Amino acid sequence: MTAEFIQPDLMPALPEMVMLAMTCLVLVVDLFLPQGKRGFTLLLSVLTLVLAIAAVIAVAPVTAVSSFGGSFVLDQLAVVLKIAVCVVTILVFVYSRDYLSDHDIYKGEYYVLGLFATLGMMVMISAHSFLLVYLGLELLSLSLYAMIAFNKNSLSASESAMKYFVLGAMASGLLLYGISIFYGITGTLDINQLSVAVNSQMSQHPVALGFALTFIVVGLSFKLGAVPFHMWLPDIYQGSPTSVTLFIGTAPKIAGFAMAIRLLVDGLGDLQVDWSQMLMVLAVASLAVGNIIAIAQTNFKRMLAYSTISHVGFILLGILTATANGYSSAMFYTITYALTAAAAFGVLLVLNRKGFEAENISDLSGLNDSNPWYAALLAIAMFSMAGVPPTVGFYAKLTILQALVQVDMVWLAVLAVLFSVIGLFYYLRIIKVMYFDKPLAEQTTTIKEALDVKVLLGANSLSLILLGMFPSTLMVYCILAFS
Amino acid sequence: MYADWPLLSLVIWTPIFGGILVLFAGDSNPAGARKIALVVSLITFLLTVPLYTQFNTSTHLMQFVERHEWIGVFNIEYYVGIDGISMPLILLTSFTTVIVIISAWEVIQYRVSQYMAAFLIMEGFMFGTFAALDSILFYIFFEAMLIPMFLVIGIWGGANRIYATLKFFLYTFIGSVLMLVALIYMYTRSGSFAIFDFHHLQLSLNEQVLIFLAMLVAFAVKVPMWPVHTWLPDAHVEAPTGGSVILAAIMLKIGGYGFLRFSLPITPDASAELDWLIITMSLTAVVYIGFVALVQRDMKKLIAYSSIAHMGFVTLGFFIVFRIFDSGFGDQGAALALEGGMVQMVSHGFISGAMFLCVGVLYDRMHSRQIADYGGVANTMPVFAAFMVFFAMANAGLPGTSGFVGEFMVILASFKASFWIAFLAATTLILGAAYTLWMVKRVIYGDIANDNVRVLNDINKREFLFLALLALAVLGLGLWPDPLVEVMHPTIDNLLNHIANTKI
What is the pLDDT of residue A355? Predict the structure, then answer.
């Protein structure tokens, strides 16, 4: 490689640059705002994300373009995932407002950190070199650590932040170790060149490559929360402020999916036979552990954490088929899962009041009596997670199953549907608590209704049904991303 | 004038959107919710009438077909149409829903709009299930219908409703997910989800057996067949009257319909290979469940078990055909068996619905379903007693009622296959009469048992209306079943031709 300096084409990175500039602006503007005007920070943050979406659409290329010496790539996959991340983050920001102000943590830093995390995710999505993947990942993770610890008066949040930090650092370390071995074998960090190099080194260094791959897969599994590297997930979900749980539980899943695709498919496609088998074990274990342990939970956030684990299992099922069909199915699954989780946590956030933290399943008792609208929205989200038609969750599962059957893994498909029947039980329990149980006495106060939250949450939940009835609208983009 | 209307879509979507309208319009206005719901259900019923009057009885081809691309990526279509099998069941559905809405008029006071909306939306989903000719469309309706029923049992049900409704949902769901995998498998083989493409798909015996078993789980739970019937008594006992009626009259039929639309034509060789299994399960339902019904103390439970026994006839009729083929009687007997099963489904829809409504009438007054709490009801409620005795006779298969026609056809056809099968099936005439009439004897006849019975009021006009409508239907079908049988003739003949040919 010659070390001459070429001015990179900056246009593909326009969305990231817009994000960065606007985030710094938000950071500065917020300093001069009195507490009463905090709404302006929110407005500006949402504007930032809208601008980022606009920039993504503006620079969206017909065919993939790369820049920065091949380490940054903008393709159909990146465009769709970036838009999804930004949309979900907008939802998160708006849903969080009342929760934050009720808990006296309505500060600009929440939004600034959230924006930085989003920037990190966007970098991850476009990263086409190990270095950039790691850079994006750490930007995301460090922002998340700070967001969790954000409520400094909460012991459990501090504990969560510590736990997440230590385990997250360990996962990053494992990932780095894998990267370093690959670098040692192939002499490159660039994913395109890596893919070529791996192909030529396969016969010479099979053991070392397998060794390195294992570390990459383990690091990925940590970040995604696949069993047996899932232990941090329930604790973090439960301990974090619900507004942060909402964030962790949604957008980073999309970025994690992108990371998996970039590393495994783009970079290590030649080792597919190996990582497919690893993912198979991880997926089946995630489906089993996630669905079975979720049954025993009484805390709603913790239950959703285990449910996330099981959904990660489904996403891995799509990836391990190693077909374009499977990848696009997993992509569809990831995006719609993020939307579904946003709706579920969104309803939970709305139920919070000053001095009352709604997080137990029993806190939802009789929601249909006190507020049928929100009960219906949460019910839609639960049915979607369970995969009951006509919600989008059904279609997402259908695509994954179809991809599995296509590559003759019928037994995996059967296993997956059987575990989703187990999963159905605990989603139904939420419906049962909301619709069949009577409200607890201290809970009769009605929910305060901010109009923007009501509209956005309604649109979010109803989109789960609309996407379920017309999945093609999103599915075509997912298929384009892998064609 | 209807010729170019998308009539079938109107039938499917009118109740669904009507239900959503009821949900929003009637939340604070129960009286309004009832009225809108009744109007919607009547409009829907009127919309289904042309499906019968304009039905061409000389062809087995699908009629009122609408076919549009829906999810192009997987070649899933919005493809609906009806033939002689589905059309009677659609009419049964629209008729029964009107009755259910009327029957809930004063009885349901809690969250009226949600109750009415649930039944209307469910009605639309059930139409969709019967009309869908794309298997994913079918599956979506098939599953979606569980949601309103789950809520109906859970919100308006009895003391043990949560257990019952969870059991209902989980049982049905576990059955159907395996079918989903089978459907996807056939899609990867045929490149389409259209049911007719599955009909003509070549499958080896091994594949057929697995697909058959996957679908068997789905439909056997739905019918329900012994030994996966245990959710039904629980669900029936805990469900509100309307829920029981829909469950017995229509939802169970979807299982039977599934056998005709999916199992028999898609996997004819596996069906022939495994017909002993279905016949055994059916006869067990008829005989064993008949005995179980005999000892019930709860009226709803008794009728639930009687439903299982009667549905045993349906599945027996559907799967005895292979034995009839073998015995050399050919198509004539086989057609009799299939048509008998179909008539039995429609007739059971009327009778079981009526029986549950009768129990509902009593329950509304006494708040008890225990047979022991009653006695001598005829003394205080003579008009009601007349209806209940009539429906009980129909349930027992009295000639002249619709209950007789279907059972007789199936038994007659069974004789052509094997004497012993027919003999065991015929025990229902004794058992059915025993458990039904014994219940009637204890509840209706005799001296007035207690003071609660002494102060009972006879049925009002509303109750008279829906019982009379059902009585007319039962009598009409019993005396003159031809219109129903004629409609399904070409379809059944075509189905028989299809399954007589091997697919291997």
Answer: 67
* Distance in angstroms (rounded) separating the CA atoms of residues A56 and A345: 27
Name the nearest CA neighbour of A121 among A295, A329, A262. A262
Main-chain phi, psi angles of A360, to 5 degrees: -90, 155
**CB-based contacts of A193, cutoff 8 Å, min separation 6:** A70, A186
More confident of the two residues A443 and B364: B364
- Which residue in A371, A406, A428 has the most chain B C-beta atoms within 10 A of its own C-beta, making it the best mutation to test that interface? A428
A421 lies within 8 A of chain B by CB: yes
3-state secondary structure (DSSP) of residue B447: coil
**Is B178 in Cβ contact with A472 (below 8 Å)?**
no
Q: Quick: pLDDT tens for B96-107.
A: 999 999 888 888
Taking alpha carbons only, the member of A235, A444, A471 closest to residue A339 is A471
Q: Give the C-alpha separation, B332 to B415, whole Å.
A: 13
Amino acid A78: pLDDT: 92
Q: Provide, as residue numbers in chain A, all residues whose Cβ is less than 8 Å from the Cβ of B180.
A: 398, 401, 417
Chain B residues within 8 Å of chain A (Cβ atoms): 27, 70-74, 111, 114, 136, 139-141, 143-144, 146-147, 150-151, 154-155, 161-162, 165-166, 169-170, 173-174, 177-178, 180-181, 184-185, 187-188
Kindly report which listed range (A444-448, B254-258, B331-335, B359-363) carries the lowest average pLDDT score. A444-448
Residues 6+ apart with CB under 8 A from B158: B237, B238, B239
Instruction: Note whether B170 contacts A428, CB cutoff 8 Å.
Output: yes
pLDDT at A52: 94
Q: What percent of chain A has pLDDT over 90?
A: 49
CA distance A187 to A164: 32
Residue in A with minimal Cα distance to B142: A389
Q: How many CB atoms lie within 10 A of CB A207?
A: 7
Beta carbons of B181 and A417 less than 8 Å apart: yes
pLDDT of residue B1: 47
Given a cut of 70, is residue A443 above it in pLDDT? no
User: What is the 3 state secondary structure string of B250-319?
Assistant: HHHHHHHHHHHHHHHHHCHHHHHHCHHHHHHHHHHHHHHHHHHHHCCCEHHHHHHHHHHHHHHHHHHHHH
* Set of chain A residues whose Cβ sits within 8 Å of the Cβ of B169: 424, 428
Handedness of CA A366, A369, A370, A374 (dihedral sign): positive
CA-CA distance, B81 to B132, in Å (whole number)?
Answer: 7
- Cβ distance B177 to A394 less than 8 Å, yes or no, reads no
Residue among A383, A410, A428 whose CB faces B181 most closely: A410
Q: What's the token pair of residue B90?
A: 């659609």
Enter the tokens of residue B41. 């259900």
pTM summary value? 0.91
Q: Compare CB distances from A432 to B140, B154, B188 and report the shortest one's residue.
A: B154
Q: How confident is the model at residue B442 (pLDDT cuts 50, 70, 90)?
A: confident
Whether ipTM > 0.85 holds is: yes
- CA torsion sign for A411, A417, A419, A422 is negative
Task: With beta carbons less than 8 A apart as the criterion, state whether B266 and B198 touch.
Answer: yes
Q: What is the mean pLDDT of residues A154-165?
A: 89
Per-residue pLDDT at A436 exceeds 90: no
The reported pLDDT for the residue numbered A445 is: 57
Per-residue pLDDT of B140-198, as tens digits, reads 999 899 989 998 998 888 888 889 898 888 888 888 889 999 999 999 888 888 988 88
Whether chain B has a CB inside 8 Å of the CB on A475: the answer is: yes
